[in-house]
Give the backbone structure.
Amino acid sequence: MKNGKALVLFSGGQDSTTCLFWAKEQFSEVVALAFNYGQRHRVELEAAKSIAKNAGVQLEILKLDLLAQLTVNSLTTPNMEVEKEKPEERPPNTLVEGRNMLFITYAAIFAKARNINNLVTGVGQADFSGYPDCRNDFILSLNKTLNLSMDYNYTIHTPLMWKNKSEIWQLSDELGVFNLVLNETVTCYNGIKGVGCGECPSCGLRNKGLANYLKSNCK
Ligand code: ZN
């Protein structure tokens, strides 16, 4: 039985779109929240709007300009190239320091004002990309901190935490949105919808997972 209200942190990418439809199965009421933080590709937000509309979910977009002023990374800095290979000794230059902590914190404040205590985010550590704020330890720690800071009983749901990309494709298929995720989401660091550029690390991960899923599923 579906129960309760949930807020999904939503970007219009593969992972958060899968989470949006997962949440629709789990909760009786779902709201989506996206952030405009000066990311290079506004096409992501356009995709988020159209997917949310398609899903019949209300989408709020909050402006968070400050983030791009605080940190240098290839997602918010024009003309800075996205690294093709993941460096050994440090996180990739697509890491936006503090992003998940800020996004989830703002989402929690937004949710409490609407009597929502379930937060859903698509972070995961199975295909670890070098982002420290995608790890389970961090999410558990932030959950505790948010509960203490606002005296509220939040649950941060991370349905993709232990799934690799192939398993995330499988979940989208089970949820009946495989084609929607395939064609309508933007995961590519170069902002190309659906199939993507095929060359950036994000496309690499997405396409490898897709190939493995299709192979194992004989599609
Ligand atoms: Zn790409």
